[in-house]
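ping. complex inputs:
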Amino acid sequence: MAREFPADSVGLVTPQTQHFDAPLRLESGRELPAYDLIYETYGELNAARSNAILVCHALSSDHHAAGYHSEDDRKPGWWEACIGPGKPIDTDRFFVVCCNNLGGCKGSTGPMSVNPETGKPWGPDFPVVTVGDWVASQARLADVLGIEQWAAVVGGSLGGMQALQWAIDYPERLRHALVIAASPKLTAQNIAFNEVARQAIMSDPDFHAGHYYEHGTIPRRGLMIARMLGHITYLSDDSMRAKFGRELREGKLNFGFDVEFQVESYLRYQGQSFVERFDANTYLLMTKALDYFDPASRHGGDLSAALAPVRARMLVVSFTSDWRFSPQRSREIVKALLDGDKEVSYAEIEATQGHDAFLMPIEKYLDVFHAYMGNVAAECATTGEDAQ
Amino acid sequence: MAREFPADSVGLVTPQTQHFDAPLRLESGRELPAYDLIYETYGELNAARSNAILVCHALSSDHHAAGYHSEDDRKPGWWEACIGPGKPIDTDRFFVVCCNNLGGCKGSTGPMSVNPETGKPWGPDFPVVTVGDWVASQARLADVLGIEQWAAVVGGSLGGMQALQWAIDYPERLRHALVIAASPKLTAQNIAFNEVARQAIMSDPDFHAGHYYEHGTIPRRGLMIARMLGHITYLSDDSMRAKFGRELREGKLNFGFDVEFQVESYLRYQGQSFVERFDANTYLLMTKALDYFDPASRHGGDLSAALAPVRARMLVVSFTSDWRFSPQRSREIVKALLDGDKEVSYAEIEATQGHDAFLMPIEKYLDVFHAYMGNVAAECATTGEDAQ
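pong. complex structure:
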């Protein structure tokens, strides 16, 4: 008997892969000769092709944003809380597209893919990709899908940065941008955490300067450390306290270096399981894309100037306990948009969950998200403005 | 010609070592058969032996709190800002003692010392030591020095925890305790950071389960990662921004994985130089002592009950930008003391430097510190109370 998925889930989904033959010129100046993008879609594209939503993923997620891959799939996609029939990104109204970004390890061309020039995996020779490069590659995917203009581009964290970049780079190609739990650029502290993660990976003897595929090794230790560290920055101090407190796994101190506190056990598990499903070279690339994101840098640090081209209406959302990209960082985006007379709504959601809140079914958050999306028209107005 | 040290420095200092033959029973239940404590003293002990101040060190520092070890010593002791003639801990008035804690790597018995049972370095077999164990060992040092009662016990961070533990464990043996930038216990997030640091060290192939001395290796990579990570938690986001911003070392992105941002260069340097001067097994022990510190745990989580024995007057100091042990944590100590009708002063210092502020010559901080110490009598009052 077939499994019954929840009524508000998109249910069974199957990824598709699009091959691109035309080379992609990257911000670094290098060129990717040809590449694949793996993506999923949910809902139906309408005849006018005007109801498409692009969902952009964060550091360690992928194209599998909603639904299930098989009847016995244990976990749904990463944004199941927000995508589905009747959910904020309502698949009864919208056609949703989510692709794994270039440099990824889940099916799009990345370090694990074969470099046509050498016949071997790209490994560390895969070019450094930027948020702008991803947006350019996503625009090409839109071309292939016949989507001239997205109803909205939506993302959280690094995904929110892509939504912002879309609004800057392709102002005519989206009507709305939703920038959730993001930042206009990393702080020195953000970069520092990324650097420690990178050093953990790169100093792992099994890393072999990134050529570990050929050595039959995986820099497990380094990637585990990187993930453990990342995880701390995704949670708030409060949420860790609520989740673990100082609880001891065995109820008493053991005066040794095995796991003692629940939080240690949790982090080790998170780190170890991540190693099984993620590639270290991809992790390095994703952290670099984060570090490099700084649209204001080409405008002498003037974010408002960087956002001058924006025509999309914007929703910016932050979470009170997010210390990775705090509400203050979201407010910088909002202020720059307002200074440029752009249309922007801003919601600061009271939440204890830290940065990870953007992935979670927090009522107030879903309400705001839902309400905003309710005003995103599935049809293009003939004037080019939203019909609301 | 002899070098002229600053007039407000204690100048040239020479560490001394005290050997203890009597075994020390540890909180873990294990026993340290015999041990050495290396320590420094500054100023003169008065005839009544009533003007002694114990300074307790933090995670990675040692007995060298002030002055210089040689004529060409480049750097003074770690608390040079606060100890010396005319400084908050005024060596014209006080006799200052600072020892390297048990488990250390700077001369006191620790993992690098020889285990008399095996004739080899203790390595990972060195017993886990706690803040309470350190305080007990420091009390024995006080016995040897003929100091029945400290005028004050003073420390920042993990050192502040020792000052607090002194006030609990030996209420008659100190008149004042100064608890600076400390916390009554670590949060889950604090423990999580420690655990990532430990995993970085312990997963380094050169760690050899802690027996790296015998293998002729040093777990450099792991210790470097641990230190880089620690360093992020010592600085505030603001101080990192002020110090590094997003400045690029070569003025432009290089689209690679070499150092790009100044903050990366700084952290790598900090990590690499730390490896030359600190022992990985000691680092593990120090982080455990931090994790375990929780005086309230024996009183069902009631900090006020834990502090019931306290007779010392207390000064608690916190720094606004300290996110490792935030002002909120200091206020927990203050509240518990007030709830128990203890005498406590509290200062929350406006400072951008993060946790490291406690080491720095911040005017307001030095003023408060100075003023409080000015009221610490060098003489015991005959009533047993302070003569002020």
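Chain A has eleven helices and 14 strands.
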